[in-house]
Amino acid sequence: TNALVTHDGATAGGFPHVKTADLAASSGSSLMGANAYQTQSDVNAERVSIARFGAIPNDITKAAINTAAMNAAFAESSNVFAPEGIFYFNDTVNIPLHAQLVGAGKIITKLQYTGSGIALNLAGGYINFSDFFLVGNSTAPLVFDAGTTGIYSPVFGGNITMENCRFQGFAKLIDSVSQGGYYFKFYNCKFTSADVLLSAISSNNISFFGCAFSDFNSGIQSFGGSGGPMSFFGCAIEAWSGVFISPIRGRKLELEMEGC
After folding, report:
1. Closest Cα partner for 150 from 199, 207, 185, 187?
2. Using one digit for the tens of pLDDT, what is the confidence trace for 102-115?
3. Which of 48, 51, 119, 164 is the most buried (most CB within 10 A)?
4. 253/184 Cα distance (integer angstroms)
């Protein structure tokens, strides 16, 4: 005899049945947190604010606290929000795979690095940044601290998207140690005041849409441009003191520029 499945777990046809809600983790994820029916994938999908972990804006003396808060946020969730304000931080923030860092706007959310090394360290690819301003110690044109890096990818890093962001005031804005650069896409971003824009990029499809570049000593340095193209659409490029693109000898670069 076929038993009837009931929504409340009551016995039907002589057989006990599990409540529908108890199957929340049937996809294989473990149940997590205060909500008994929340899976780990649910937790990762939730956007958590760095303020929840104690981040305090507009106070340079809280730089160490803010560093810890940002790292704690990424340890709990791959989807992190930085609210309005200037959040000073003095050490590396580690960004995991498949992560998002979202601000309230590239004018009103500023992440200001006061350290002397790497600001944001990427564990790999599939990273999305949007709506914040990442800046080094100085906001003056062509002033930056030697040895500082804004975004660093020590391992293979592909499929990285940055939208409505601003990056300023580092010796190297983006450095991927010849490992990254695969399907990088930048939309409506502004890059300014650095020694090098992109360093050690092995490019396969790097695209800039509506971006602005100014006040650099070097552009794209040590570029191993195989399998491109590198594309610039509707971009503004100005105030450059050195070479815009410096490829590795023997490499061929497929370069597209339209409406710049």
Report:
1. 199
2. 999 999 999 999 99
3. 119
4. 16
- For every residue of 143-161, DSSP letters joined together read --EEEEEEEE-SS--EEEE
The two structure tokens encoding residue 142: 């062509």
Q: How far is CA 29 from CA 19, 39, 50, 158, 235, in A?
A: 18, 6, 25, 26, 44
DSSP state of 95: E
Give the full edge-to-edge strand order of the sheet including 204-209.
48-49, 79-82, 100-103, 127-130, 158-163, 182-187, 204-209, 230-233, 255-258
β 31-32/38-39 pair status:
antiparallel
Q: How far is CA 137 from the centre of its chain?
A: 20
Q: Give a three-class secondary structure readout of 163-176.
A: ECCEEEEEEEEEEC
Q: Indicate the pTM of the whole model.
A: 0.78
Per-residue pLDDT tens digits for 50-97: 999 999 999 999 999 999 999 999 999 999 999 999 999 999 999 998
Nearest-angstrom CA–CA distance, 252 and 245: 12
Report the distance separating Cα 86 and Cα 237, nearest Å: 27
- Six-digit token pair at 231? 């594309």
